[in-house]
Amino acid sequence: MDILSTRAVAEMLGVSEATVKRWSDAGTLRCFRTPGGHRKFRIRDVKSFLADQETEALRAPAVAPPATELTVEQREARQLALAGDVDGLVSFVATQRLKGVTLSMIFDRYLGPAMNDIGEGWFQGKLSAAQEHIASAAIVDMIARVRPLLEKSGRSPRTEGNGRALCACLGEERHDLALRMVGLVLTAEGFRTSMLGANVPAGDLALLLAGSPPELLALSASPHANLEALRADLALIASAAAAVGTRVIVGGSGFERIAPFPSNVTRFSSLEELVERLFRAGPQPERQVS
Ligand code: B12
Fold it and tell me: What CATH number has the domain bearing residue 6?
């Protein structure tokens, strides 16, 4: 049970088998060989390899100190993102998961606050827009790397076949990192997730819902959202969704500020709350077409 193949280690860390072999050949990741010459890895060696990587990341020179008070994990996530270190971010997520931290916790408690601190640094003129872009792109790439691993191995009979979920940011909204995190959590919960990303025109989305209704539609809006436009867009989407029985979930500061919502729309303040209320709180109501 404590011995892993090259492929298992690669899947766990979100890297290719060739990368794992390169690390083991370089001696940074310990392995032993079977009589047939295949590499095998002990879990404790993989853990200590990950711990070494964390220490390296914390030792690297900081670009600028955090603008807010951060925990060790948030600092590490911030540093990896600012360095554009996608491998490091994937390892960070893998390490936390090995420690039993759920994906939604990793996003809510570490990566989200790390990104928001970067925004504060930018606001205070301590970080440039370019640095903020590097960090954002690294998070997007990390999520893309982690996703296929969840699609292959993350499903349990309990969650398999939840149906299709669409994820979108409406109108002028370009802040889609939280949405991508939502998409990954939904994938891990057994949804086939289609990521529409930023700047989706509400009219187009309404047509998409009517033509091919998903079980779930997730929307995210940042503090920058134009509240009047968001309210009008949500009204349109909620009525299109109600007509085909699609459940709508929303989150992010933008939506917080336009409550109350149409009856088929539920707002969540975090990913942990989403998982807890939507997937761990017993059977869901039947899908209804009005
Ligand atoms: C990264 C970033 C960008 C990137 C976005 C890249 C991308 N692909 O997303 C880029 C560079 C494009 C950008 C652009 C701009 N940005 Co910007 N940006 C940010 C930053 C630093 C991080 C946002 C983020 O991703 N946070 C991490 C996520 C995970 O955290 P979160 O949003 O809080 O989400 C959590 C919960 O709310 C919840 N959640 C959120 N959505 C949902 C949805 C569902 C369904 C559920 C269940 C849960 C959920 O779960 C998440 C995890 O815990 C913020 C800083 C901040 N404090 O928000 C500024 C920030 C939002 N931006 C800001 C500004 C001003 C801008 C620009 C106007 C800058 C400019 N002059 O061009 C433009 C506007 C673009 C536009 N039209 O939307 C301001 C907004 C201020 C305001 N009140 O209006 C902020 C707050 C920075 C600041 N401190 O001033 N930005």
Answer: 1.10.1660.10
Q: What are the C-alpha distances in Å from 96 to residues 51, 54, 82?
A: 11, 11, 19
The amino acid that residue 239 corresponds to is S
Which structural domain range is residue 237 located in?
163-279
Q: Does 51 reside within a domain?
A: no
Q: Residue 69: CB partners within 8 Å, gap ≥ 6?
A: none
Please list the residues that pair with 101 across neighbouring strands. Answer: none
- Chain segment 130-164, per-residue pLDDT in tens: 999 999 999 999 999 998 877 655 454 444 578 99
Chain mean pLDDT for the chain: 88
Please tell me the distance from the alpha carbon of residue 205 to that of residue 166, in angstroms, as a whole number.
10
Mutate to test the pocket of ligand 1, among 106, 175, 234, 261 (most ligand atoms within 8 A of CB): 175
Distance 267 CA to ligand 1 centre (A): 17
Instruction: Please indicate whether residue 217, judged by its CB atom, sits closer than 6 Å to ligand 1.
Output: no
Q: Same domain for 111 and 177?
A: no
CB of 171 sitting under 6 A from ligand 1? no
Strand positions, DSSP E, the chain: 3-5, 32-33, 39-42, 163-170, 191-200, 216-220, 247-251, 265-268
The pLDDT score that the predictor gives to residue 1 is: 64
- pLDDT score recorded for residue 13: 77
Task: Pick 170 or 65 by higher pLDDT.
Answer: 170
Q: So what's the pLDDT on residue 152?
A: 55
What's the rounded Cα separation, in Å, for the pair 262 and 163? Answer: 23
224: Cβ below 6 Å to ligand 1? Answer: yes
Kindly state the percentage of the chain with pLDDT values over 70: 89
